[in-house]
């Protein structure tokens, strides 16, 4: 009986201990999960170190701050004329003067495109992508409150795919740029824009990588005639926030609603979002915007070197002591790097406080600097670390401010021309002509489908014998012109109409 009584007592005590332990656990939970007032579980949470607790992850504050500052941009490119015929086509006649009869059947319809932009101050300045507004004859900006304005182009920088446009309005909401060097991989971000004409769309993701180069600017970059030095600036912030066509030029922001980048491109086999998007970092955006507004052209500093990313295989092939960094394969005679003492074969491993592992990182950092800026460059030279103070220069090898080049006939046309020799004229059986050797940004590309290699024989029925003839004819022209000519590899005559 004593043993039975002891068992009963033990059972009662065990039950009391179990109940007491349960109540103690309820009062002092060790789990770090959070529940809402209605007891629904929190699906996502962020850790707040100051309070040593978790809080719900909330995007609403950032979204409310950002959406009013993101605009919708509609670009319109008026149709041009181009055709092949042995006679002047009827569709050109009304366009090129009152002596032609009315016939518009061959005119191309206006082309329209859409994108996004970000208001960067209260005075109506907007940053967007160059490819959103490139070649546009008209730009319409629609604000978050549905007000619409015509915009004018302040400046463009194809090498970073950025542009600044402006609307005539004041007291506008805008976003502040933050230091994009402080952005961390894994950080939450929001992408805000107008994909597929769906205004004010917000998506969320994380920063997947930094310093990415995908050669999308370089592959699409059409250099200006006479300029062989255009170099794409690619050091993208990569994110997995959903970005689609129409998001171009929109905002990539942190959870404080500060601008860390301008959404520019997606990596996709279909043309729609498939997991990765890329944004120009705010540090590059800020410098480009300041220069375009102040000078009309970007004041970009150059190290004046030819570089390659260092990998383990590259290091082995070139007998290097490091397997990451940027290898200096050549140096310009006008470069600040040469003046500072950097040599071919050096490996750049750090610039100022930024560790350099590859070329996009170096290009992105230097791309945010101006001529005259001094950067501290650390290199590995055959296993020995050395540091140099490098004064950056412009492309001409000086630290002077670069002025925006005045427009002339060739920059307006967007073409390089070359006089033809007698042998070529005889072979083509033409009396005279001027060859279009290269087509860049300008009226020809905007209004026609002319190909490089086209030989201009007449402009508005006036014979062309040299580049000087082109200048003389066009300098006195206003409105539309008609170019007649031939291709070396195609039979027949071609006609291209464009506006000036």
- The CATH architecture of the largest domain can be given as Beta Barrel
Q: Estimate the helix proportion, in percent.
A: 10-25%
Number of alpha- plus pi-helical segments: 12
Compute the CA-based radius of gyration.
31 Å
Low-confidence stretches: 1-43, 85-106, 221-230
- Return the CATH topology of the largest domain: Thrombin, subunit H
Total number of beta strands: 28
Shape from CA axes? globular
Count of distinct structural domains: 3
Largest sheet: 7 strands, antiparallel
CATH class identity of the largest domain: Mainly Beta
What structural class do you assign from the helix and strand content?
Answer: alpha+beta
Strand order, main sheet: write it out: 8-7-3-5-6-10-9
N-end to C-end Cα span: 115 Å
Beta percentage is 25-35%
Task: Give the averaged pLDDT, no decimals.
Answer: 81
How would you explain this protein's 3D organization?
It contains 12 helices and 28 strands. The protein is an alpha+beta fold. It folds into 3 domains: 218 residues, Beta Barrel (Thrombin, subunit H); 87 residues, Roll (Pdz3 Domain); 91 residues, PDZ domain (Pdz3 Domain), CATH 2.30.42.10. The strands form 5 sheets. Strands 8-7-3-5-6-10-9 form a 7-stranded antiparallel beta sheet. Strands 4, 23, 24, 25, 26, 27 and 28 form a 7-stranded antiparallel beta sheet that branches. It is globular, with a radius of gyration of 31 Å. 36% of the residues are buried.
């Amino acid at each position: 009986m004593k043993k039975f009584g002891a068992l009963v007592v033990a059972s009662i005590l065990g039950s009391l201990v179990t109940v007491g332990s349960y109540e103690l656990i309820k009062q002092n939970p060790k789990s770090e999960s959070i529940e809402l007032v209605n007891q629904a579980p929190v699906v996502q949470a962020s850790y707040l170190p100051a309070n040593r607790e978790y809080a719900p992850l909330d995007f609403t504050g950032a979204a409310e701050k950002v959406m009013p500052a993101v605009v919708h941009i509609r670009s319109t490119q008026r149709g041009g004329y181009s055709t092949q015929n042995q006679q002047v086509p009827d569709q050109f006649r009304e366009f090129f003067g009152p002596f032609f009869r009315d016939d518009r059947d061959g005119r191309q319809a206006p082309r329209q495109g859409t994108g996004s932009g970000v208001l960067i101050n209260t005075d109506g300045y907007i940053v967007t992508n160059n490819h959103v507004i490139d070649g546009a004859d008209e730009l319409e900006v629609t604000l978050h409150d549905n007000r619409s304005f015509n915009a004018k182009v302040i400046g463009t920088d194809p090498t970073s795919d950025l542009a600044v446009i402006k609307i005539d309005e004041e007291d506008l909401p805008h976003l502040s740029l933050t230091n994009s060097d402080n952005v961390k991989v894994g950080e939450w971000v929001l992408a805000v824009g107008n994909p597929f004409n769906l205004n004010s769309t917000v998506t969320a993701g994380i920063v997947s990588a930094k310093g990415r180069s995908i050669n999308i600017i370089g592959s699409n970059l059409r250099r200006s005639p006479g300029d062989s030095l255009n170099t794409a600036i690619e050091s993208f912030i990569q994110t997995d926030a959903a970005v689609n066509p129409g998001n171009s030029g929109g905002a990539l922001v942190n959870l404080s609603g500060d601008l860390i980048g301008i959404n520019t491109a997606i990596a996709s086999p279909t043309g729609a979002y498939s997991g990765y998007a890329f944004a120009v970092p705010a540090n590059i955006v800020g410098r480009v915007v300041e220069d375009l507004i102040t000078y009309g052209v970007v004041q970009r500093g150059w190290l004046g070197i030819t570089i390659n990313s260092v990998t383990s295989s590259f290091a082995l092939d070139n007998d290097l002591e490091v397997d990451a960094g940027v290898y200096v394969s050549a140096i310009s005679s006008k470069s600040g790097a040469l003046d500072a003492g950097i040599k071919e074969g050096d490996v750049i491993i750090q610039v100022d406080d930024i560790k350099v592992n590859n070329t996009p990182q170096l290009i992105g950092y230097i791309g945010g600097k101006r001529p005259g800026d001094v950067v501290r460059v650390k290199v590995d030279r055959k296993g020995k670390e050395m540091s140099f103070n490098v004064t950056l220069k412009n492309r001409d090898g000086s630290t002077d401010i670069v002025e925006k080049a005045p427009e002339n006939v060739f920059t307006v046309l967007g073409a390089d021309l070359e006089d033809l020799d007698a042998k070529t004229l005889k072979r083509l059986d033409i009396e005279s002509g001027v060859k279009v050797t290269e087509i860049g940004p300008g009226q020809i590309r905007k209004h026609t489908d002319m190909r490089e290699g086209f030989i201009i024989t007449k402009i508005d029925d006036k014979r062309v014998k040299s580049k000087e003839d082109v200048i003389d004819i066009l300098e006195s022209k206003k409105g539309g012109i008609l170019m007649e000519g031939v291709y070396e590899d195609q039979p027949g005559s071609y006609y291209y109409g464009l506006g000036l």
